Amino acid sequence: MDQTVNFVNAPSVAKERGIKVVEIKSSRSIDYASSVTVTVKTADGEHLVEGAIFGKNEPRIVRIDKFALDVIPEGFLLFLHNEDKPCVIGNVGILLGEAGVNIAALHLGRESAGDEAVSVWNIDSQCSDDLMGKLLKIPNIISAKVIEL
Predict the structure, then answer these.
(1) DSSP readout, the chain?
(2) What confidence tier does 28 reach under pLDDT thresholds 50, 70, 90?
């Protein structure tokens, strides 16, 4: 992107890039004044990510699909979608440790006990393809994805 995006030009920049912007006002009690929600439609389905600024300049991911979270968006992020069952977090931690991947922070979200859940792991390095394959073989893991910010 060659131009800086700001509050004034954001709507026109989004329109130029084919991004639909919808402003929604809510009376729900939250820790931030406003947020930005991005919905991505792919062949695999539709996903929603909501971000907000806490305090003066503390960005956070506050929702992924239907799950409320409080994620610091920096570095490498490992996103896991899983059944909310015992041993999932422990097994992931063991595999990351065995692969030499340090965990900086862990953020969890679920709607109700025993249903589906998401976890976002701030990690200090990329996961190899071999490690991603092992993570996907953990019982109750539905999907796994790493992004670098």
Answers:
(1) --S---TTTHHHHHHHTT---------S--SSS-EEEEEEEETTEEEEEEEEEETTTEEEEEEETTEEEEE---SEEEEEEEE--TTHHHHHHHHHHHTTPPEEEEEEEESSTTSEEEEEEEESSPPPHHHHHHHHTSTTEEEEEEEE-
(2) low
